[in-house]
Amino acid sequence: MSEANDMPAVASDAFNATAQRKDQSLVLTLTGTADLRSQPSLEKFLFRINEVALGDSASEVVVDLRRLEFMNSSCFKAFVSWIGQLQEIEHARQYRIRFLSDARLLWQRRSLHALSCFAVDLITVETS
């Protein structure tokens, strides 16, 4: 695995995204509100996560959204682009993406269901 200091992060007043390694997985934690101001940073973050996951031969990327209050459509599109990049990679190198969501947040249920339909072989959603 690569060095810990190469892990991307986003920190702002309204939105934060962190990444850490855990066994053969990467665990992403998103908190706050992901809106139009966050979109460019989130896009770069997910692009870098893809590079790190592939470089580490990660088996899974866990995306913990349970403390993310809201995500607008431009940020949601960043996830669609990330998954699209992953689908273009040869099957043997692909990793799975597991979303952890909060059942109380209706936008997460709707959005993550739609996202999981986009790549049923790569995405799982766990709700708590």
Q: What report would you give on this structure?
A:
With 128 residues, this protein is of the alpha/beta class. Helices cover 37% and strands 34% of the residues. Strands 1-2-3-4-5-6 form a six-stranded mixed β-sheet. Strand 1 and strand 2 form a beta hairpin. Helix 1 runs parallel beside helix 2. It is globular, with a radius of gyration of 14 Å.
How would you summarize what this structure contains?
It is built from three helices and six strands. It has 128 residues and is an alpha/beta fold.
Which structural traits does this protein have?
single chain; 128 residues; alpha/beta; Transcription Regulator spoIIAA; six-stranded mixed beta sheet; 3 helices
- What is the element string, with H for helices and E for strands? EEEHEHEHE
Give the count of helical stretches: 3
> What integer is the average pLDDT?
94
Kindly give the count of domains: 1
Which strands sit side by side, in order, in the main sheet? 1-2-3-4-5-6
How would you summarize the topology of this molecule?
Layout: E1 10-11, E2 15-22, E3 25-34, H1 39-56, E4 60-71, H2 73-88, E5 96-101, H3 106-118, E6 123-127
Parallel strand pairs: 3-4, 4-5, 5-6
Antiparallel strand pairs: 1-2, 2-3
Helix pairs in contact: 1-2
